[in-house]
Amino acid sequence: MEDEKEICHISSFVVRCQPRALTRVLTATAALRGVEVHNSDASGKFVALLELESERALVETITAIEQLPGVINASMVYHHVE
User: For residues 2 and 4, what is the distance between their CA atoms, to the nearest angstrom?
Assistant: First the structure.
């Protein structure tokens, strides 16, 4: 039996939320497994970097972000599989 290789999905998203919800959305997003947040601004935009083991985990995580109260949308900018 061959050794199974670890797969890693690395993806980045620009997340837009209502400016008044920014702090709450940043905190909730950063608390998700495999997620880092970067470069937020007062208009309600920030970058979310996701590093997860499967496409399914990636989709579930971005869905969780999109469903946070105050989130307007999340747009994928980059996706790489190692």
Answer: 6
Give the strand pairing for 35-41 and 71-81. Answer: unpaired
Q: What are phi and psi of 39, to 5 degrees?
A: 50, 55
- Tens digit of each residue's pLDDT (9 = 90 or more) over 9-61: 999 999 999 999 999 999 999 999 999 999 999 999 999 999 999 999 999 99
Q: Give the β-pairing of 45-52 and 35-41.
A: antiparallel
pTM of the prediction?
0.88
Which of 46, 48, 49 has the alpha carbon at shortest distance from 18? 46
- d(C-alpha 7, C-alpha 51), whole Å: 10
